[in-house]
Amino acid sequence: MSLDIYTNLMKRFHISSANTRFFFEVSKCCGYSEIVDCPKAETLENLYTIISDIFQVHKDKLKLYVIHENSKILIVRTNVKIRDFLSVMQDIIKPEYPLPAQIVYKIYFDDGTCHKDHTSNLVCQSNIHP
Question: 116: which residues sit within 8 A by CB, 6+ positions away?
Answer without folding.
Answer: 29, 30, 122
